[in-house]
Amino acid sequence: MPLATCDEEQLEIKLLLEALYHCHGYDFRQYAYASIRRRILLHLKNNQLETISSLQHHIIYSRHAADRLLIDLSINVTEMFRDPLFFQYLRQQILPLLQHTEYLKIWHAGCSSGEEAYSMAIILNELNLLSKSQIYATDFNNKILSKAKQGIIQLKNMRLHIKNYIDAGGTEQFADYYNAKHNYAILSQKLKKKIIFSHHNLVSDAVFSSVDLIICRNVLIYFDKALQQKVFQLFNESLNIGGYLCLGSHETLCFSPLSKQFKTCSETLKIYQKKADKQL
């Protein structure tokens, strides 16, 4: 079978994403092309499929095939206290400014398997803010959300998590936050009960709630510019005045039309604060 040309391959990918959206409601049509292409081709290889068109046929007629593709299109790279300097800045510079909030609401958008949401709960606990806080952790991938709710981590990964915790300014014994069982670490129920894991699709769903802090790191880099602006508007509408937006290291609000509505707290760490109208 002759190889598809670049134009033919691009058309096949476009039709595949249209089928995924119209048949199953998942919209990847505005994801960055290079990233989505790489993941689709890897999916073909792993599932021994010869063409993108054959994959399209499978996902139209099989929900199971669509779910398998969805897993491979998801971005699920995370760890506890990922980028420790970011969490240290939150601990020392941002969260103390929110300590007088009557009830602190935090949204982890694109939470993947939940490690960063649990990291936030640990910091809140050590700042004596956990009891008056609620963390909303959302993702569009229901399978990864089920894993996140369990709060179970492989023990072999704990050395890295402990190092990150210490580098992020942790003040307690990290072992107090989990129980070891066989080859796994089961995170504390005290942390779990303050996190609500729920389905939310940044591409298509509406404003989540009025929140004080939004963390969405290393998700928007997979979106095209138009979709990034749409999500920025969603975040802007979701944030309370004076609330904070935290992005990934390769993401920025600076070139967005909404940038004037935010104060830059740290361009290095990509942390921004929503201004009051009179400050615009």
Structure description:
The chain has 280 residues and is α/β, with parallel strands linked by helices. It has two domains: 6-73, no CATH class; 84-279, 3-Layer(aba) Sandwich (Rossmann fold), CATH 3.40.50.150. It has ten helices and ten strands. The protein has helices spanning 6-24, 33-46, 52-61, 63-73, 84-94, 115-126, 142-150, 158-167, 189-192, 225-238, and strands at 104-109, 133-139, 152-154, 178-181, 184-187, 195-199, 211-216, 239-247, 262-266, 271-274. It has a seven-stranded mixed β-sheet with strand order 6-2-1-7-8-10-9. It has a three-stranded antiparallel β-sheet with strand order 3-5-4. The longest helix is centred in the N-terminal third of the chain and has 19 residues, at 6-24. The chain is globular, with a radius of gyration of 20 Å. The termini are far apart.
Radius of gyration: 20 Å
Sheet/helix structural class: alpha/beta
Helical run tally: 10
Oligomer classification: single chain
Strand content: 15-25%
CATH class of the largest domain, anyone? Alpha Beta
Distance between the termini: 59 Å
**Spatial order of the strands in the main sheet?**
6-2-1-7-8-10-9
**pLDDT averaged over residues:** 91
Q: Could you say what the CATH architecture of the largest domain is?
A: 3-Layer(aba) Sandwich
At the fourth level of CATH, the homologous superfamily of the largest domain is Vaccinia Virus protein VP39
Contiguous low-pLDDT stretches (5 residues minimum) are none
Tell how many strands the DSSP assignment holds: 10
General shape? globular
Q: Any idea how many domains?
A: 2
What is the H/E string? HHHHHEHEHEHEEHEEHEEE
